[in-house]
């Protein structure tokens, strides 16, 4: 039996939806392991105080970073990207808990030019889990999480902090 003329637009719509549906790419998971180097103080600082905390505590302070992503923990290790990041002292209760927002931009290899955006907490001295809330390039539509921990802190007035990062990125 031929479909009645009034059903035709509906059937066409289903056909279009079905075509689009079969083109949906499969989501995949990429695990990246790298090191995040932060130079604090001195002429080559990669993080600066943008807003000094008002009052006696640290509540309300804001720091801006353009930190370094490397393949390994050594300074001589290969550069794989930079961050554009913001650290905000947004906890009244704890002097060592910060709101942390980062854009990781990869500058080499397969992911050159691609980025992931991360939001979460920085609790000094603890392993931190943060949410990957998006991405660009190869990481378009990304979601996932990162696990990071401080593995070394060297220097006194000029500090080099090295964090180990694992990123579990779900993307298309
Ligand atoms: C800062 O960077 C310059 C250029 O890379 C280097 O020559 C200099 O030794 C560095 N200074 C410090 C204190 O690390
Ligand atoms: C800062 O601390 C000093 C000493 O504890 C206190 O006298 C002063 O009132 C505090 N100032 C503010 C703005 O909290
Ligand atoms: C990364 O991409 C930029 C812009 O396309 C290009 O200039 C640069 O040479 C690339 N770097 C590497 C290491 O492939």
UniProtKB/TrEMBL annotation:
Annotated TM spans: none
Classification via InterPro entries: Allene_oxi_cyc_Dirigent, Dirigent
Cellular compartments per GO CC: apoplast
Biological processes annotated in GO: phenylpropanoid biosynthetic process
A Pfam family assignment: Dirigent
Primary role: Dirigent proteins impart stereoselectivity on the phenoxy radical-coupling reaction, yielding optically active lignans from two molecules of coniferyl alcohol in the biosynthesis of lignans, flavonolignans, and alkaloids and thus plays a central role in plant secondary metabolism.
Name this protein carries in UniProt: Dirigent protein
UniProt source species: Musa troglodytarum
Lineage, uppermost ranks: Eukaryota, Viridiplantae, Streptophyta, Embryophyta, Tracheophyta
């Amino acid at each position: 039996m031929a479909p009645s003329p009034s059903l035709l637009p509906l059937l066409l719509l289903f056909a279009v939806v079905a075509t689009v549906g079969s083109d949906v790419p499969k989501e995949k998971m990429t695990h990246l392991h790298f090191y995040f180097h932060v130079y604090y103080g001195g002429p080559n600082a990669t993080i600066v105080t943008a807003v000094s905390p008002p009052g006696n505590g640290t509540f309300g302070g804001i720091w801006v970073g353009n930190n370094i992503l490397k393949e390994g923990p050594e300074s001589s290790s290969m550069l794989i990207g930079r961050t554009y990041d913001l650290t905000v002292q947004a906890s009244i209760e704890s002097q060592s808990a910060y709101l942390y927002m980062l854009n990781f931009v990869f500058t080499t290899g397969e992911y050159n030019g691609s980025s992931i955006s991360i939001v979460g907490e920085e609790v000094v001295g603890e392993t931190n889990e943060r949410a990957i809330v998006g991405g660009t390039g190869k990481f378009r539509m990304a979601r996932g999480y990162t696990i990071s921990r401080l593995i070394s802190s060297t220097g006194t007035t000029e500090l080099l902090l090295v964090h180990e990062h694992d990123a579990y990125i779900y993307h298309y």
